[in-house]
Amino acid sequence: MKTASQYRLTFKVTLHGLFFSMALFILFAMLTGVARAAPSETDRISQAMKAIWDSPEAPLVVEPIVIEGDYALAGWTQLARGGRALLKSRHGQWNVHMCGGDGLNDVETLTMAGMSAEAAERLVKNTSKAEAKLPAEVTAKFSTFGGNMVVDHNHHPD
Is the pTM of this model over 0.90? Predict the structure, then answer.
């Protein structure tokens, strides 16, 4: 038979275990909540573009998004059209610098926009790999934009 002190000890151990389990559960919930609350860089790029061009009657789909340093190249489609956008991160915000079609998938164009040749080569290579994973009917739309167009007239290469 257990004594009163043994019952109290069992109760304390059980209570401590319960509090420890609850604390771990709360910590886990907080950590996973924080991870979901902070948008990824690709989410921020997509949101920046959608803030400009998305509408209920013509939803903007942004994919793929490839980041190289402070630059990103994003493919986009909207209804029957599409293209690519070159974005630059300034002070933690992504801004569209240029819009275009196949011309934005060119190293020389990207270096003229301010990228180093090495970074431009990596961006073109990684964008080609990412686009290869998309359906052909989506990537075909990227060519429909036509020539390159500077969107951000205040761009100064860093």
Answer: no
